Amino acid sequence: MDDDTSDFGSFYEADNEDETNTIINMSYKVLVPVKRVIDYAVKIRVRPDKTGVETANVKMSVNPFDEIAVEEAIRMKEAGFASEVVAVSLGPKTVQETIRNSIAMGADKGIHIETGTADLQPLGVAKVLKKLAETEKPNLIILGKQAIDDDANQTAQMLAGLLNWPQATFASKIEVDKANNSVKVTREIDGGLETLSMKMPAIISCDLRLNEPRYAKLQNIMKSKKAELKVQTPQDLGVDISNKIKTISVEEPAKRSGGIKVDSVDQIVQNLKKHALI
Amino acid sequence: MFRFVNKLNHINSSLLINNGIRYYSSKCLVVAEHDNKDLLSSTLNTITAANKLGSDVLLLVAGNNCKSVVDKATKIKGVKTVFHADHPLLEHGLAETLSPVVVGLKERQQLTHIFTPATNFGKNFIPRVAALLDVGAVSDITSIKSDDTFTHPIYAGNAIATVKSEDAVKIGTIRTTAFEKAPVEGGSAAVEQLDWIAPLVDQAASSTNIKWEGSQVIKSERPELTGARVVVSGGRGMKSGENFKMLEELADTMGGAVGASRAAVDSGFVSNDLQVGQTGKVVAPELYIAVGISGAIQHLAGMKDSKVIVAINKDAEAPIFQVADVGLVGDLFKVVPELTEAIKKAK
């Protein structure tokens, strides 16, 4: 374990852990996990052998909720709260694109956890992030509330549980109170909104309405391509990412039978009557 | 073919077990969603899902001064025991304080399953519980194939995954629209007070330093969106929040609820708790009327299991018409008031 932390130390020379803990106004670090997923606009296709969804030659993008998380972290930096934003992604080498996208938006550096083609599930991801939280010592970890591929909505909550940190999920507003080392979060709940306050370090997951992510400038995109990424494996971190939930099959949902187009309101009413709805 | 045979064998063996001695090896804890006065109906759907396991169903009511909820819970058909955990810090269902209570119950009761509704309440705390128990979780379960095999939608409902959990305790959230509500009468569950919870809850609150500051709950006379028989939803085509009054009138004519697309919420027409879709609420009413909604993948994810879908849109090419049972191409500002009047007359 010591080897791992010293690796981090040499890579991130500017990082000073003592400062983070003692000087309130300095060196607040925000860790933002980002996931590479099939682009939200793509109509997905289930593989004929039912093992999953076709991902070859399909447009991939950053999970939309994660872009919101990155944007929020960058705004914290611009507001003088955060001093450093670290983007991290797990997966094969292709996820480096996703990390570079975050850097192009304004993240300071990236960590790639190389997992090859392993079936990543929220618990394994949360375990890796927990290790990174211990070495990187962020004050806040901001995640998307769910990935639009597995739709699990679990990673932030699991990470909070593993770290025993407070959590505010489905955030639509975040206010940092530096003086009290706390953060106030407005959450989207089923009946409306709810406000929590938490001491940092804390976990936040973002809802859609938190902000509108910026587009990266071309110049920053070019710069991000050269950014050096820290690459590690779960083994380096001593984390077992295997999981006990096995996918048996993936199938297409039942198709709706084709409907009809009508020309008048009366015909709508007739149809509703036919279905005994009025 | 091979896979098919295997599947049959599996079904047979589980039937044998169930047909032999009444075999209660499994215990499913349902964590109730409530407001300290009443149970929310999402809990009833979850109890039905739990009963599909053929196991003992145990219900946890954790809250503050929530005895009236416990009293109602004991009458629900299909519940064996109601666990009552009362503590001021459990009032708002915070994940930090609720999770240790659930974990404590798991240790004391040898639970095999833990289910809760896939509402924002359930989604918020159940993964935290799973992590504390070092097990995975299955989100948004839509069917229960056996005690370890479940289906759930992925990719905004465009694929259905069947998963098998090999974890010692199976944890999941239940998509409420996929299961009927358990009857609120006919049961006679025992009540067990959980007197051991106070130190766990206090400790969790102090170690995480979480504070509930307040809430803004939007009040409505209309039925609750996820349980409504009829839902009338508006999209960007509504042009303003003011125009949603038209949809409210149509909804009221049919005793329905009003929903919205993300575009309508983002444009500030209505509050975000009305959003139907992949990242909002999932509804499956008998009738869904989509007005001025194009029908993006993300919106369809939240409503395409509705029994009958009616679409009103001026764009004949809008994707919503591909899932609509009845579609009318036309100007919603003309069609909707006409439809409201026509339905009033037809009744």
From TrEMBL, chain A:
Entry's Gene Ontology molecular function annotations: electron transfer activity
One annotated Gene Ontology cellular component of this protein: mitochondrial matrix
Chief location: mitochondrion
Keywords per UniProt: Electron transport, Mitochondrion, Transport
Residues annotated as signal peptide: none
GO BP: any one term: amino acid catabolic process
Domain Electron transfer flavoprotein alpha/beta-subunit N-terminal, first and last residues per copy: 50-241
Origin superkingdom: Eukaryota
Compartment list: Mitochondrion matrix
Name of a matching Pfam family: ETF
SMART domains: ETF (SM00893)
Record's keyword annotation contains Membrane: no
Gene3D superfamilies: HUPs
PANTHER family associated with the record: ELECTRON TRANSFER FLAVOPROTEIN BETA-SUBUNIT, ELECTRON TRANSFER FLAVOPROTEIN SUBUNIT BETA
Biological role: The electron transfer flavoprotein serves as a specific electron acceptor for several dehydrogenases, including five acyl-CoA dehydrogenases, glutaryl-CoA and sarcosine dehydrogenase. It transfers the electrons to the main mitochondrial respiratory chain via ETF-ubiquinone oxidoreductase (ETF dehydrogenase).
Family per similarity comment: Belongs to the ETF beta-subunit/FixA family.
Assembly behavior: Heterodimer of an alpha and a beta subunit.
Name by which UniProt lists this protein: Electron transfer flavoprotein subunit beta
UniProtKB/TrEMBL annotation, chain B:
Residues binding FAD: 236, 261-262, 275-279, 292-299, 313
Cofactor(s) needed for function: FAD
GO MF terms, alphabetically ordered: electron transfer activity; flavin adenine dinucleotide binding
Cofactor stoichiometry and binding remark: Binds 1 FAD per dimer.
CDD domains noted in UniProt: ETF_alpha
Keywords associated with the record: Electron transport, FAD, Flavoprotein, Mitochondrion, Transport
UniProt-listed PROSITE patterns: ETF_ALPHA (PS00696)
InterPro entries: DHS-like_NAD/FAD-binding_dom, ETF_a/b_N, ETF_a/FixB, ETF_alpha_N, ETF_asu_C, ETF_asu_C_CS, Rossmann-like_a/b/a_fold
SMART domains: ETF
Highest taxon in the source lineage: Eukaryota
Residue ranges of domain Electron transfer flavoprotein alpha/beta-subunit N-terminal in the record: 28-204
GO CC field: mitochondrial matrix
Signal peptide (UniProt feature, chain positions): none
Locations listed in the record: Mitochondrion matrix
GO biological process, one term: fatty acid beta-oxidation using acyl-CoA dehydrogenase
Self-association state and partner proteins as the record states: Heterodimer of an alpha and a beta subunit.
Entry function: The electron transfer flavoprotein serves as a specific electron acceptor for several dehydrogenases, including five acyl-CoA dehydrogenases, glutaryl-CoA and sarcosine dehydrogenase. It transfers the electrons to the main mitochondrial respiratory chain via ETF-ubiquinone oxidoreductase (ETF dehydrogenase).
Family the UniProt entry places it in: Belongs to the ETF alpha-subunit/FixB family.
Protein name: Electron transfer flavoprotein subunit alpha
Source organism (scientific name): Heterostelium pallidum (strain ATCC 26659 / Pp 5 / PN500) (Cellular slime mold)
